[in-house]
Design goal:
Low-confidence stretches: none
Mean pLDDT: 86
Distance between the termini: 16 Å
Strand order of the largest sheet: 2-1-4-3
Structural class: alpha+beta
Shape: globular
Largest sheet: 4 strands, mixed
Helix content: 25-40%
Strand content: 15-25%
C-alpha cells in the first residue's frame, strides 16, 4: 500500500546522497530525489535494487534506478 511517509523517507534519504555529490538516474535519465521516490512508490508491487557506481576513490558517485515503470 502506498504511504506518503515512505515516499518522503526515501526522498530524504536520496537527498542526502545528492547533497554528498551523488547523481541520481531514473531509466537512464538524470532525475531528482523526488522523481525517483515517486516512481518507486507508485510502482509499489515491485522491488528495487539500485545500481551503485563508485568513483576511483571508492566514493558513491551515481545511483541508477532502471526498469522502474513510470505511470
Amino acid at each position: 500500500m502506498f504511504r506518503k511517509e515512505d515516499m518522503f523517507r526515501l526522498e530524504e534519504q536520496l537527498e542526502r546522497f545528492v547533497e554528498g555529490g551523488t547523481k541520481l538516474y531514473l531509466e537512464g535519465q538524470r532525475a531528482s530525489a523526488q522523481e525517483v521516490a515517486w516512481a518507486c512508490m507508485v510502482n509499489e508491487e515491485a522491488v528495487y535494487m539500485p545500481d551503485y557506481v563508485f568513483d576511483e576513490l571508492g566514493r558513491l558517485d551515481e545511483l541508477y534506478y532502471d526498469r522502474v515503470r513510470q505511470i
